[in-house]
């Protein structure tokens, strides 16, 4: 999760989740954020394909990249 600051982005959180998992971010409402999701290689050397479900998104602006 990045905070968007004009031409720059500031890393706020970095979480690695293998298999199933949930995560939660708490940030101020009135800023702009970027959520970057990257597949990782699992133990079986297969690429995990993330499934994203958003709930209770309470920020002014959120972009998924």
Quick gist of this model?
With 65 residues, this protein is an all-beta fold.
Descriptors:
65 residues; mainly beta; 4-stranded mixed β-sheet; elongated
Topology summary:
Layout: E1 2-5, E2 8-11, E3 32-35, E4 61-64
Parallel strand pairs: 3-4
Antiparallel strand pairs: 1-2, 1-3
Q: Gyration radius, to the nearest Å?
A: 13 Å
Count the beta strands.
4
Percent of residues in helices comes to: under 10%
Q: The biggest beta sheet, please?
A: 4 strands, mixed
Spatial strand sequence of the major β-sheet: 2-1-3-4
From N to C, what is the helix and strand string?
EEEE
Helical segment count = 0
Low-pLDDT sequence parts: none
Euclidean distance between termini CA atoms: 10 Å
Tell me the structural class: mainly beta
On the 0-100 scale, what is the average pLDDT? 78
Whole-number tally of structural domains: 1
Shape: elongated
User: How much of the residues is beta strand, in percent?
Assistant: 15-25%
Tell me what you see in this structure.
The chain is an all-beta fold and 65 residues long. It has one domain (1-65). Helix content is 0%, strand content 25%. The chain contains no helices and 4 strands. It has a 4-stranded mixed sheet with strand order 2-1-3-4, with no helix packed on it. β1 and β2 form a beta hairpin. It is elongated. The N and C termini lie close together (10 Å).
